[in-house]
């Protein structure tokens, strides 16, 4: 999908290979073979023909280059593929190939198989990433740092909780994956979606075809592209979660709070170690989000060649980009290196304890007065807690007002995130 040298950073050979010309041709051939077997099982074509088609096609590899001219002419590779497959079959079996099907049945069926294979790769990488973040969360569950809201220092939290928050949207998409898979059903509707050429056997053929391909059965979806859109939106949400992780790493790198992976050098500044992998995840996340709206194009009437073909160009790119982002993110998660000193630095003046101080004082003077007093103390030239000791004699245990006081609550919040993940 992405040519060298950029491919070294943004491409994914494993996922991209699942959508190669050879992979698509093989998947379409598999669908044609399964269709013949299904129709023979139902009794629509002779059993001998179905068996012979399945036998020949099982060992047949069609050169995708042979389909190029036919694809340019027909706008879809199936007519050229069927011609090549028939040429390899005995005449008695050849006439039964592609019986009652339309090109969209074969292409969509093949793409669903490719999508399923790609999701297996993505699911494994997702589990690896979540597992690494969980390990980091548990390893650093007492490492305090400053939370930032709207880019400003807020309250103390733990690095363990931040790692859990990175994992949280990833866990949600891992849990959503079965539903995404379930929507990718078999495609068999014939010329106009009603299966009229094989009526009344269309539903039986569809069910038998689904069973042979390992898919769920369902109505033809020639122009109902909800399943395709659901897969695309899943990729958008997942890479958005990965992008949040990467963006935080880039920001934390500015103050040396944390690093991960191996930084890349500058062409002119020897001291730099650029966050290449994190930036790549951000780029890939934005690429997926940019491509996604193309999948919302409505499909007109009973088949829309232009809108349908757009999916062939867009969704494989989205899934390959998702695969590359996951590969980078997994490595980043496994090599997280928080800098305890830098993380704690914004907490030294005590300003991040302002919220805790307000709530500690509120029972003694009311919340509004407590907040006003803490605001006044925060503006003093001395650290927050000494200023409060000077400004009020309220019976507050100031020695307990320390950043580490947040550890139990943060540990509990992080555990709640990972409790949802069965891995």
Automatic annotation (TrEMBL):
Q: Sorted alphabetically, which InterPro entries does this protein's record hold?
A: Fumarate_lyase_CS, Fumarate_lyase_fam, Fumarate_lyase_N, L-Aspartase-like
Q: Does the keyword GTP-binding apply?
A: no
* Gene Ontology terms for molecular function: isomerase activity; lyase activity
Q: What Pfam families does this protein's entry cite?
A: Lyase_1
Give all residue intervals belonging to the Fumarate lyase N-terminal domain.
25-285
Which keywords has UniProt assigned to this entry? Isomerase
Name the domain of life: Bacteria
* Gene3D superfamilies, sorted: Fumarase/aspartase (C-terminal domain), Fumarase/aspartase (Central domain)
Family stated for the protein in its record:
Belongs to the class-II fumarase/aspartase family.
Q: Please identify the protein, giving its name as recorded.
A: 3-carboxy-cis,cis-muconate cycloisomerase
Q: Which organism is it from?
A: Pseudoroseicyclus tamaricis
Supply the source organism's classification: Bacteria, Pseudomonadati, Pseudomonadota, Alphaproteobacteria, Rhodobacterales
């Amino acid at each position: 999908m992405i040519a060298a040298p950029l491919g070294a950073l943004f491409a994914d050979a494993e996922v991209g290979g699942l959508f190669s010309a050879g992979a698509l041709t093989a998947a379409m051939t598999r669908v044609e073979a399964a269709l013949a077997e299904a129709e023979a099982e139902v009794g629509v074509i002779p059993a001998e023909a179905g068996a012979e088609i399945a036998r020949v096609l099982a060992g047949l590899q069609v050169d995708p280059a042979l389909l190029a001219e036919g694809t340019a002419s027909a706008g879809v590779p199936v007519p050229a593929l069927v011609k090549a497959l028939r040429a390899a079959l005995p005449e008695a079996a050849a006439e039964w190939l592609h019986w009652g099907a339309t090109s969209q049945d074969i292409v969509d069926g093949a793409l669903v198989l490719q999508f399923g294979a790609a999701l297996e790769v993505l699911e494994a990488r997702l589990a690896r990433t979540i597992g690494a973040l969980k390990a980091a969360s548990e390893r650093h569950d007492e490492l305090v740092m400053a939370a930032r809201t709207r880019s400003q220092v807020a309250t103390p939290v733990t690095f363990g909780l931040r790692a859990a928050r990175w994992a949280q949207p990833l866990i949600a998409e891992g849990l959503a994956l079965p539903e995404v898979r379930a929507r990718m059903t078999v495609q068999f509707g014939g010329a106009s979606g009603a299966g009229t050429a094989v009526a009344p056997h269309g539903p039986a053929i569809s069910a038998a075809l689904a069973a042979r391909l390992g898919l769920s059965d369902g109505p033809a979806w020639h122009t109902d592209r909800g399943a395709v859109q659901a897969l695309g939106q899943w990729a958008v949400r997942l890479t958005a979660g990965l992008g949040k992780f990467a963006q935080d790493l880039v920001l934390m790198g500015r103050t040396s709070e944390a690093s991960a992976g191996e930084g890349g050098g500058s062409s002119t500044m020897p001291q730099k170690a650029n966050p290449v992998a994190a930036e790549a995840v951000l780029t890939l996340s934005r690429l997926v989000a940019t491509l996604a709206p193309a999948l919302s194009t409505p499909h007109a009437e009973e088949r829309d060649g232009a809108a349908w073909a757009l999916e062939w160009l867009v969704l494989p790119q989205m899934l390959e980009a998702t695969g590359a982002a996951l590969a980078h993110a997994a490595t980043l998660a496994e090599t997280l290196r928080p800098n305890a000193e830098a993380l704690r630095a914004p907490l030294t003046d005590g300003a991040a304890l302002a919220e805790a101080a307000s709530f500690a004082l509120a029972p003694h003077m009311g919340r509004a007065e407590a907040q006003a007093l803490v605001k006044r103390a925060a503006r003093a030239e001395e650290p927050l807690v000494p200023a409060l000791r000077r400004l009020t004699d309220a019976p507050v245990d100031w020695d307990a007002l320390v950043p580490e006081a947040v550890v139990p609550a943060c540990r509990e919040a992080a555990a709640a995130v990972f409790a949802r993940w069965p891995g």
